[in-house]
Specification:
- This protein has about 220 residues and is an alpha/beta fold.
- Helix content is about 50%, strand content about 15%.
- The protein contains 10 helices and 5 strands, in the order βαβαβαβαβαααααα.
- The protein has helices spanning about 10-20, 35-45, 60-70, 90-100, 110-120, 130-140, 155-165, 170-180, 185-195, 200-210; strands at about 1-5, 25-35, 50-55, 80-85, 100-105.
- A 5-stranded parallel sheet has the order 2-1-3-4-5, sandwiched between helices.
- Helix 3 (about 60-70) links the parallel strand 3 and strand 4 (about 80-85).
- It is globular.
- The protein starts with a strand and ends in a 9-residue tail after the last helix.
């Protein structure tokens, strides 16, 4: 059973998302909150698999809530998905850098919304190749890496290759095909890279790959 927490300051939207989720046999909404502060308390109480958090709320917003969840080792199993009205923008990118697994635009189709919740619960990033390219082109091309974090040299050659392929939006099966290894081995390379880089999920691997210079956007 996938356990979901909803955090949004708009009761109508929150109720709509809950109605969709409640119809699914494999998904349970464990709690909902109207602001980030309450949401954080409920995350710590219920330890959901997926926390759907609105990015813009009064008080503690989605970025700050994501940052606090990512910083708490007790919440390592919570996958944050940002809810936004506007698609990929600077706020969403900052949430990804803070530790969000991905983001959803609020006018998403119901079937895509449900699929995204299941993807996030598996620990996969909600970053399709097209979204990854937009993220790279609009934000990661700027010199954001400070040098204070882990460097690519800490990875093995195979781990570096796997991270680079993740940064291009490939799934584990596609990485396995490209590297001519089994999907399980591909997953192992990705998981070990995440552990070494202290990345919560694949979205952070994408950000790291470009900020560190492991992968260079086309045209640079």
């Amino acid at each position: 059973m996938i356990r979901v927490l909803l955090v949004d300051d708009q009761p109508l939207l929150r109720g709509g998302f809950r109605a969709l989720l409640d119809l699914e046999d494999d998904i349970e909404v464990v709690a909902e909150a109207g602001d980030g502060r309450e949401g954080l308390a409920l995350v710590r109480r219920h330890l959901p698999d997926v926390a759907l958090i609105d990015i813009q709320m009064p008080g503690v917003d989605g970025i700050e809530a994501t940052r606090r969840i990512a910083a708490d080792p007790a919440l390592a199993g919570v996958h944050v998905v940002i809810l936004t009205n506007y698609g990929l923008d600077e706020y969403v990118f900052n949430a990804l850098r803070a530790g969000a697994a991905g983001f959803l635009v609020k006018d998403i189709l119901p079937e895509d919304f449900l699929h995204a919740v299941r993807v996030a619960a598996r620990g996969d990033a909600l970053l399709a190749p097209s979204i990854t390219r937009k993220l790279i082109d609009r934000y990661v091309t700027q010199p954001l890496h400070t040098g204070a974090g882990p460097e690519p040299a800490e990875l093995t050659n195979r781990e570096r290759e796997a991270v680079a392929l993740v940064a291009h939006g490939l799934s584990n099966d596609q990485i396995a095909d490209r590297m001519m290894i089994s999907p399980m081995t591909a997953k192992t390379h990705v998981n070990r890279a995440m552990a070494k880089l202290h990345a919560r999920d694949r979205a952070q691997l994408v950000v790291f790959a470009y900020e560190s210079g492991l992968v260079t956007p086309r045209g640079r």
